[in-house]
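Field reference: "sequence" (input) and "structure" (output). Example, AAA domain-containing protein:
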Amino acid sequence: MTKRIEIEFKSSVEIMNTPMKKRRFIVDEMIYPGLHVLSGDPKIGKSWMMMDMCLAIAKGEKFLGRKTEQGHVVYMALEDTSDNLQTRMYELTDEPTDNLQYVLLVNTLGNGLEDDLRKCKETFSDLKLIVIDTLQKVRDTVDMKYGSDYKDVSTLKSIADELGIAIILVHHNRKQQDSNPNNMILGTNGIPGASDGFLVLPRK
């Protein structure tokens, strides 16, 4: 049963007079604390892109010419092996860093993933980013209904907000092309709708 909440009111005056917090970027003008989706066709380079971003944040180096906020990063590479990761790492850098941590196996949503994410923050106090590669690997359902998509992504967004970090979900595109990026993401509009931002990699 859903926990009941007490309704609270805020006047437009209170809203307008409340000082706004300046948005903090982890990757300048690109990634900020919250829930983001990276979607693309299979084998288009999503994992390579995420590993490159993770390394840049872990080292405090630029990513795609953009400044990063240095700190710990956890990459949940749920479709990879240690051998695959090692091969990619050798391609990307000669200087590994302890600020980038890999996880190859986690629990699913509603079955312990929420605690796994909180443990990342407890273990690394300066945690900036968690990458979940891929979204479907942490879902128990293959149900592609709007309600299921929205609920799952909203749950992950709530945890990102709670921990003050960015979470990026790596996901797949539909087979059909579309001029609207929203419609290219596999599943329903509940996925981009519940996220803070999304990036769709176009087909080559």
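The first helix runs from residue 12 to 17.
Helices lie at 12-17, 46-59, 82-92, 113-123, 146-163, 190-193.
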